[in-house]
Amino acid sequence: MAAHSKVFLLLSISCAILQISLSGDPDILSDFILPPVFFGPLDGNFFTFTGMRSLVGTPFPKSFKVSKATMAEFPALNGQSVSYAVLQFPADGSVNPPHTHPRASELLFVLMGSLQVGFVDTTNKLFTQTLQQGDIFVFPKGLVHFQFNCDAKNPALALSAFGSASAGTVSVPNSVFNTTIDDKVLALSFKTDVATIQKIKSGLSG
Ligand SMILES: *[C@@H]1O[C@H](CO)[C@@H](O)[C@H](O)[C@H]1NC(C)=O
Hints:
Keywords: Apoplast, Glycoprotein, Manganese, Metal-binding, Secreted, Signal. This protein has 206 residues and is an alpha+beta fold.
């Protein structure tokens, strides 16, 4: 290969990598996207999500609860590269188990109470923090993270914003121990026996 074509190849590869690392959701070529089946009328209602009204004035849930406003619940988000989740943590030990969002960074805003949060980077280093009401924490895209309310008396409420209309969630406990991956594979991977794997699995199934 001639020297100049090698340089060109290298340049195109670096551009492609840069493109991948800069991109979030794909850019759209119109102001907004209507669902394939839409009966209208097209007005402010299409751009309004009222699903969170059900949280106002209702008693706090008894276990950890996520309420989402992603493209699935709110079709107007398609192509807009943003979404929300409201996270409710009752007092005394409620946890949002370790998980990742493959398609977005997450910006978590503690509106009420306090939360212990953390994420693990690709070198397995844990970054953790105890957040107070009013604090904002960022979970980098794709990294394993969790939130925990260890306050014995007070519930915690947080609002998470995502840089994707469909961030996706991969739960670590579920994706490892609540699928049909062979017990033997898991036993070998976790350097333990099949009985231990089955014990963990039985806690998650059903
Ligand atoms: C495990 O998977 C089953 C079937 O998909 C589901 O019903 C159950 O809620 C999952 N367990 C947990 C802890 O999410």
